[in-house]
Amino acid sequence: MTSRSQRWILPTILLAEVAIAVADEAAVTVSMSGLLLIGPLVAAHCLLSPRLTALAAGTALALAVLLVTPEMVPDHLVRVLLVATSGLWAVLTVRRYREYRIAVTRLARLAETTQQAISPPLPAELGGLNLAARTRSATPGARLGGDLHEAIATPTGLRLIVGDAKGHGIDALSHAAAVLAAFRRSALTAPDLTCLARQLDTRLAGELGEEDFVTVLLAEFGRDHVTLVNCGHPPPIRIGATLDTLGVRRPSPPLGLSPDPYPQRIRLLPTDRLLLYTDGLTEARTPGGAFFRLDDRLHAALAAPTLDQALDELLDALDEYTGGPVADDDLTLVLAQAAPSTLPSPLSAPVPEDRRHPVRRRP
């Protein structure tokens, strides 16, 4: 309820209470003073402040006392007691609700601060790459979730991780935090991504339960290529003249389930972009159950002039497709492209291992 509409609630309640008192005074055989308890109840229902609710309750009680007549003292005293009790209940309810809202707001701010501390926003440029990221949690009204992402510049090139811990909420967040902590400790020293994936799995051995796992996609960006190691994660999408889903040549289980990482080297042209994401994108559905499609509209969104604009347009398209921003799963999107100052020469040698994979469309 807006503050503008709330401004008219208290005067309306007070006028209604006065009208009830006048009607009770005019009635001969019927007492209407019991209806005065409605005023404070309406104030509580409309979530007025405790002070305004107390004013409505006090006015109703005062009018109920004034309506007491010598001829009907016992009956009127019962009604006065009912009005007083309802008024007290309304004030206490509104006060408790106000305290609850303050506590929830503080917790939401703490959760957001915790999430940002665990997985801070990516810089717009790092290690010769332009970066943009967006996150959404499946937990209503919160940003807590099991998705994770981080980028670290190393001597061999920028290393990027995108992952998804099993589950939602606090439990998934703790597993995501453990993965990020391990990545930050090992990313600079691991000789390659295969070794890095094994080190992450080893460090997580004491953190994950028997049925817990974390899917991760590791990427290391070179001058005109990217090396990928995929452990059970959705494949990235290369955005160029077409959308290319970079499927896994040799699948590996996620972290926590004895992964067998395998490196894959993919060429990136100067104008290519690379989208890394979690399954909140591919598992998004319409109310009728149809999956989000990787089609021309997605291509147009991801080809927007800037990376931030591209992700915003992608989210708009996703919301329009699913009917709103409410999600069944956490969603993380990371979009990367070579920075203009580091674009390779047009004569760069091709990468022999490069294979362009067509977009996999759902039936």
From TrEMBL:
- Protein's UniProt keywords contain Hydrolase: yes
Q: What keywords are annotated for this sequence in UniProt? A: Hydrolase
Enumerate the InterPro entries for this protein: Bact_Sigma-Reg, PPM-type-like_dom_sf, PPM-type_phosphatase-like_dom
Q: Which domain of life is it from?
A: Bacteria
Chain segments carrying region Disordered:
341-363
Residue limits of the PPM-type phosphatase domain? 126-338
A Pfam family assignment = SpoIIE
Q: Which GO terms describe its molecular function?
A: phosphatase activity
Composition bias, Low complexity: 341-350
What is the protein name given in its UniProt record?
Answer: PPM-type phosphatase domain-containing protein
